[in-house]
Amino acid sequence: MILAASALAMALTATSGISAAKAGDSMDDLVRIEVLDGGRTQDGTYRAALRLTLKDGWKTYWRSPGDAGIPPLFNWRGSRNVGEVAFTWPTPSVFETSGYQTIGYMDQLVLPVEIKPSKPGKPVRLKGRMELGVCKDVCVPSELKFDHALDPQAGRNPAIAAAIASRPYSAREAGVTSAICHLTPTKDGMRVEAHLSMPSAGGTEVAVIEPGHPDLWASETRSERKGGTLVATSELVHTEGEAYALDRSQIRITVLGRNHAVDVRGCSAG
User: Fold this and answer.
1) 9: pLDDT strictly greater than 50
2) Domain carrying residue 33
């Protein structure tokens, strides 16, 4: 469960040997949020970003946080003239902490957001809250609120442009020639074995399989390189223990390498 910032003293540590947060630390000391303006595009959408600035040495998590992370959640209640919202996630880093693998960002995250207004040409107000975890020696579940009237006349924002440029490559950009997913029923759910025909992303490649369904949980993805093919395997389990049908077109596979990252949307039965 995500707790509000006022509940810092109740933050739990999941790993033995981790100390509690320093007395007197407030959420403003650990992480701050602000909305960056990026103006209005030729398509009539608004470009903006949520910028998180963390205390030195602290990190927060990617949309799929890994073994022991806290996934970020967003609530847009209070926003005005906000129709569709689309994120561009910058390439995250992989961390190894106390035997756990987590995925996220150190010190700062600029998360670009593209907003399609419900009523084109009318003012847009971005208001809501972000629930997240911030970690160093202790993980603190927290809640940040934001409220900003977007400026349609704002010019190009270098921080937003840099964050968009740091996104993973698309499958086509990375030279992925095929993405095949083999599905095998397991005792608790479904085993997914993805075969990606693609050049190496460099170094040790870490793959992450996301099922594309909010009620499905994915275990840590194991990956190995077999020549020109990266094989990634994960088990998908329904959070309520129910049976489910898996849509291969909704599966998302991200490969994080030393040189670059790759975002593969959907896979075939082969």
Assistant:
1) no
2) 5-165
